[in-house]
Amino acid sequence: MNEPTVTKMKQMKLYGMHHAFKTAIESGKTDHYTLDEFISMLIDAEWDERHNRRIERSIKNARFHYKSNIESINFEQSRNLDRNLVLRLAGCEFVEKNENILITGSTGVGKSYLGTALGYQACIEGFKVSYFNTNKLFAKLKMAKADGSYLRELDKIQRQEVIILDDFGLQALDSQNRITLLELIEDRHNNGSVIVTSQIPVQGWYDIIGEKTIADAILDRLIHQSHRLELKGKSMRKKRGINRAEN
Fold first, then answer.
1. How many Cα atoms are found within 13 Å in the side-chain-facing hemisphere of 116?
2. Which CATH number is 237's domain given?
3. For residues 187 and 98, is the Cβ–Cβ distance under 8 A?
4. Of the residues 40, 61, 82, which one is the last residue of a structural domain?
5. Shared domain check, 188 and 71
6. Sign of torsion over alpha carbons 150, 211, 195, 68
7. pLDDT, tens digit, 9 for 90 and up, residues 109-162
8. Final residue of a domain: which of 61, 76, 106?
9. How many CB atoms neighbour CB 160 within 10 A?
10. 100 pLDDT above the threshold of 80
């Protein structure tokens, strides 16, 4: 008698409700609920299913380079990483306030992992996020200028509530990339958040950007409302390698 109902739920794409209803019938637990409780259980199951699908879709669209999460972050004292600050940032209030996060430190100390973990957390909280390797983004936007799709690409980036610019500063910016960065940051000023990771200390970004007037304009917008994390310590990659060897 319940088969038509189960089929209709699936056809209507009520997947959470479909699974919960089918499971309750097969396990014989329908009699354990009052009518109100049963309806509430089905609605909760559907809500959870849609919520989880939204998060999965958001994470997929962000195109993260790898997986990371707040729970796995190493807060050893030698890393100069404030646990309270990181956990506060993980609440994503910085996105609501259009604030930026600037993460610096030497190679392998976990800058990209931390930036990505905060990006994952923003996805979980329902924000639209995009991850970019900075050099690859600049190369892509140069090609977009050549084929006439530049403004369309900028518009897609602007629609994101958080963008991650990973490995900023590996190369000094040429005049075209300098203007591109200015347009990216200017579009996001008071309209979105930027997470930047870099091997170069923030005070060295002026030299990376070049041309003082443009560097001032970019960094004034980027630094003005920002949280700065300067990671220290030994390379986490080397440490993971040692641990594997010991095991």
1. 21
2. 3.40.50.300
3. no
4. 61
5. yes
6. positive
7. 999 999 999 999 999 999 999 999 999 999 999 999 999 999 999 999 999 999
8. 61
9. 21
10. yes
pLDDT at 239: 54
Give the burial class of 218: count Cβ atoms within 10 A of its Cβ; 0-12 exposed, 13-18 middle, 19 or more buried: buried
The pTM of the full predicted model, rounded to 2 decimals, is 0.82
Same domain, 37 and 152: no
At residue 247, the pLDDT reads: 30
Q: Are residues 148 and 28 in the same domain?
A: no
Amino acid present at 152 = R
| One-letter amino acid of 27 | S
Q: Which of 11-15, 53-57, 111-115, 175-179 has the lowest mean pLDDT?
A: 11-15
Q: Which residue type sits at 208?
A: I
Q: Tally Cβ neighbours within 10 Å of residue 206.
A: 14
CB atoms within 10 A of CB 201: 13
Q: For residue 163, which phi and psi values (nearest 5 degrees)?
A: -120, 140
Q: Per the structure, how many domains does the chain have?
A: 2
What is the residue range of 201's domain? 64-246
Same domain, 32 and 129: no
Same domain, 26 and 118: no
Give the separation between CA 76 and CA 83, rounded to whole angstroms. Answer: 9
Arithmetic mean of pLDDT, 10-18 = 86
Token pair, residue 230, equals 């300067």
Residue ranges of alpha helices (H) inside the chain are: 3-11, 15-27, 35-62, 83-90, 93-96, 111-124, 134-147, 150-158, 175-188, 205-209, 212-224, 236-246
- pLDDT, tens digit, 9 for 90 and up, residues 189-233: 889 999 999 999 999 999 999 999 999 999 999 998 899 999 998
109 and 226 share one domain = yes
The predicted pLDDT at position 6 comes to 83
